[in-house]
What does this fold into?
Amino acid sequence: MSNIKIAQKSPYTVEVNSGDKKVWCSCGHSENQPYCDGAHARKETGMKPVVCKFENSETVYFCGCKHSKNGAFCDGSHNSL
Ligand code: FES
It folds into this structure.
């Protein structure tokens, strides 16, 4: 877990559509937040992205601090960092 980089201390608000697939960056090193750009491998973080598939069109809040206990989605953990 020591290779985690805090991308930002707030979630990324994203509008998704039914059928969308998003690949969330779990390591924080991507320059295309909140999505994976392959940096986890280049920087040998030992971490992997999380694939998220959406069945509904909705607003989602991707974790920006990379410390959420709710996978790719914000759980408010950024407030205690
Ligand atoms: S760049 Fe962070 S998980 Fe791929």
The first helix runs from residue 39 to 42. The longest strand covers residues 12-16.
